[in-house]
Amino acid sequence: MKTALAALGVVVAVATYLGCTPSSPPALECDAKAETKAYFLTSGCGVGGLITISTVPGSCALTVDGGYVAQIPSVGAFTGAGADGTFTLENGNWGLSGTVRYAFHPPVDETVNCSASPLDVDSGALPLACSDEICSDDGEDSSCEDQLCTADLFPPNAVPTSADDSGGLGLGGDDDDDASADAGSADASVDGGT
């Protein structure tokens, strides 16, 4: 009898413990529609440049064509729906994560995480915030620090002249003539441009 009561006590204790432990949230289910948009990434994070972001219908996944060259991750996913409950690029709530190669001497591969905010109606851009961890080792001590940056994703035909052009991308100012022609053709070549 004592053994049966002890066993019952163990079962109750385990059930109580399991009932109190937090369970992981259910996986996000996205009903994203097919969407492909071209953007100019300003050079606030990486070197920037022309990229194309595509959603994967019925899933949370995103891909970035040109991400490697622009020095941002080439894959990502939605992290939540927009305020209207839909999963679209302009609604934000998506992120990118992956290895990026920085053109140092020698080149350095870093893991970068980016998150997109909803479209800023005033600027016409999607703000993108990225972070990575830069580590140094001087032989005796090593240290790491988080590096944060912000950039903007502009539609190719709407890049303002004040856009950050430290990488010589033709994103604004006097060197826009060739870039405008390239951007117009890139925008037209993207499926629907929306």
Assign the structural class, choosing from mainly alpha, mainly beta, alpha/beta, alpha+beta, or little secondary structure. alpha+beta
> What is the helix/strand order?
HEEEHEEEEEH
C-alpha-based Rg, rounded? 23 Å
Number of helices: 3
Q: What proportion strand? A: 25-35%
Helix content: 10-25%
Give unreliable regions as ranges: 10-18, 166-194
Q: What is the molecular shape?
A: globular
Average of pLDDT? 77
Sheet having the most strands: 8 strands, antiparallel, barrel
Could you give the distance between the termini? Answer: 72 Å
Assembly category: single chain
- The count of strands amounts to 8
Strand order of the largest sheet: 1-2-3-4-5-6-7-8
How would you describe this protein?
- This protein is globular.
- The protein is of the alpha+beta class.
- Mean pLDDT is 77; it is low at 10-18 and 166-194.
- The chain is built from three helices and eight strands.
- An eight-stranded antiparallel β-barrel has the order 1-2-3-4-5-6-7-8.
Topology:
Elements: H1 2-20, E1 36-41, E2 49-55, E3 61-65, H2 67-70, E4 75-78, E5 94-102, E6 108-116, E7 126-137, E8 142-154, H3 176-189
Antiparallel strand pairs: 1-2, 1-8, 2-3, 3-4, 4-5, 5-6, 6-7, 7-8
Defining traits:
194 residues, alpha+beta, 8-stranded antiparallel beta barrel, 8 strands, 19% helix
